[in-house]
Amino acid sequence: MKSGGFLQSTAVGFGRALSRALMSEEVAHRSGLLQSLDPRVRVIGLFALVLAVTLSRKLTVVLMLFLAAGMIAAFSRVSIATLARRVWLVVLAFTGLIALPAIFITPGTPIATFAGGSVRITAQGVATALLLLARVETAATFTTLLILCTPWAHVLKALRSFRMPQEAIAMLAMTHRYIFLLVETAGQMLESRQSRTVGRLPGAEQRRMTARTVGVVLSKSIALSNDVYLAMQSRGFRGEVRILSGFRMRSWDYVGLLVFLCAATIAVWIGR
């Protein structure tokens, strides 16, 4: 808990969420390896690598793909520290809890025993847990690079060019915009409430105030959803994502697409 209390820490969390979104847009407009490729190539190429990670059964192959993801991030001018904070540490904590029981319950050769031999850590269990962790870390890194290095509108247009249904595109577009709108609204409400509060409230009262704010935001979202839908309709949105810059494949894009697909195919072949 921060020294400013639950209310202030919640408002700070909302502010950090918005700042991360702005930072993602800033990274997408840098000059780098992924940014120089056509958005369709980025979508196909990185999804192909994610599929290769999923299909590979050898830890060494997955680790090589993870190293490739780090090199792509470096050449795309994506901070490794940002990936570590936003992806690697989060995935390590979440997936690690899921993979931890595997080292005890997977049958195999014991490498350590506890509680008089009733609890065993097996080599096969450790290998299974490491493979799961490496897969999730690598796949999350590739998808994060796609989002960081490609504006969201370009991602949606690239997906639509692959004949993704209009309904799915509309849902993704509105969800992305709607989340940040609600976060901004909730942050403004908490900041407004805090500016009208004299002294420091007890922790329980701050939590009740935050819960009431969440309820108000949810009730406002019902009315706001209709307003957003009408505003999008009045501006000509019919499910098709339209941006000012058009997509045009160049020779460099074809080379990049070929490299992505070849790397994914080789990884799947070796990692069988």
Give an overview of the whole structure.
The protein has 272 residues and is mainly alpha-helical. It folds into two domains: 1-18 and 151-241, no CATH class; 30-150, no CATH class. Helices cover 74% and strands 3% of the residues. The chain is built from ten helices and two strands, in the order H-H-H-H-H-E-E-H-H-H-H-H. A two-stranded antiparallel sheet has the order 1-2. Strand 1 and strand 2 (119-122) form a beta hairpin. The mean pLDDT is 78.
Task: For this entry, give a set of tags.
272 residues, mainly alpha, 2 domains, 10 helices, 2 strands, 3% strand
Radius of gyration (Å): 23 Å
- Unreliable segments (pLDDT under 50, ≥5 consecutive)? none
Strand content: under 5%
Q: Sheet bearing the most strands, described?
A: 2 strands, antiparallel
Mean pLDDT: 78
Order of helices and strands: HHHHHEEHHHHH
